[in-house]
Amino acid sequence: MKCSRCKQLACVSLPSHNSGFCAECYPLFFTRQVETAIRREKMFTREERILVALSGGKDSLSLMLELALQGYAVTGLHIDLGIPGSSEKARAKVETFCAAHGLKIQVLEMEKEGLPIPDVKAHVNRPVCSVCGRIKRHHFNRVALEGGYDALATGHNLDDEVARLFANTLRWDTAYLSDQGPVLPAREGFVRKVKPLFRLSEFETANYAFLKGIEIHSDPCPYASGASFTGHKELWGELEHRSPGQKFQFYQGFLKNGKPAFAAREKEIGEPLAPCCECGSPTSAGTCSVCRIKAAVRESKAKTTGA
Ligand code: Q46
Ligand code: ZN
Fold first, then answer.
1. How confident is the model at residue 303 (pLDDT cuts 50, 70, 90)?
2. How many domains does the chain fold into?
3. Residue of minimum CA distance from atom 5 in ligand 1
4. Ligand 2: distance of its center to the CA of 109 in Å?
5. Residue 19 falls within a domain, yes or no?
6. Which of 10, 137, 204, 250 could pair with 3 as two cysteines, CB 3.0-4.6 Å apart?
């Protein structure tokens, strides 16, 4: 196959775009997709300050590099979860990457926040990943608001978005369906959230990271439970193989036809939010879920240590 741009030998084939690219031209394809996402969805401008959530994986590091290369004012935020044998490696990758590219970075340690994930796992009787995800989202939002950032950017790609949409649809979870998309506008207590990689698949992002020589943290988290999303991604991989482009069509169809209806419904029945009495984050329950988790960890630890 020949490169769709320069006609040299292609090294990446993209059936869903009916094209292929050589190593030099591929990053340009990636750049165009990110530019289109930002422009069409009105994600942010060059005058705005963007906080980028950095896990150390291919998606977040590729996003950070690409936005910096495009001239956006980006700062990385890494959350050190305190998971032995894993978190220190992820943090090292992020710090090395940012130092190598001269990018600003902030690290937030869950240990210092009273919420190291091993303690959460040991003392909270709920699936650790759902609690961990909630804790991360809470802190990304809080740091973005406190730092006066205009938007929080995450590295969610098309496969992540489609797998999540599919899971929410299987459950007909209208609250989540109303709250999914490449841009979630700012509202009281919430920073604007954007996903500039939503047009790009996992494969496409992995190629970019590889061709740009980004060293990523790829070890699986020791607490990962083979979440249902993995199965959904495999299923969608099969559908995409049979009919290239279907993933993107499904997601775009939802944004055009499904999301507006779910958003209107949730506006009518959604619960009103007020600031958490402990931390000020928006909640419908007096004390927010993260403050309640923190208290539960503290109490359970005190009981087990007899303190
Ligand atoms: S870090 Fe946290 Fe993930 Fe580990 S405990 Fe689960 S959610 S798997 S992305
Ligand atoms: Zn709170």
1. confident
2. 2
3. 129
4. 17
5. no
6. 10
